[in-house]
Amino acid sequence: MAKKKIDKEAERAPSSPGKIVSIFKNETIHFVIGLMLVIFSVYLLLAFFFLLLYGGSRPKYYRQRQFCRPGSC
Question: How many CB atoms lie within 10 A of CB 53?
Fold first, then answer.
């Protein structure tokens, strides 16, 4: 009986990575991952664009407010 349990455990181990690989071969998963990457890339594009537009004015604002005491500014 002990031999049969060892054989069953050996048979189950290789099938586990096969299931993970089969999930990533699914066309729906490819579409969802691609869509998420496109949305993230558009977000980064907008973030860099607005950084170039408005990034230069922010340090000036922080320098002015840095030396103000609470209640005096």
Answer: 9
Per-residue pLDDT of the chain (73 residues; tens, 9 = 90+): 555 556 555 555 556 777 778 877 889 999 999 999 999 999 999 999 988 887 766 555 555 555 566 666 5
* Residue 22 domain flag: yes
Q: What is the dihedral of CA 24, 29, 32, 35, to 10 degrees?
A: 50
Q: pTM higher than 0.90, yes or no?
A: no
Containing domain of residue 11, as a range? 2-66
Tokens of 32: 């969802």
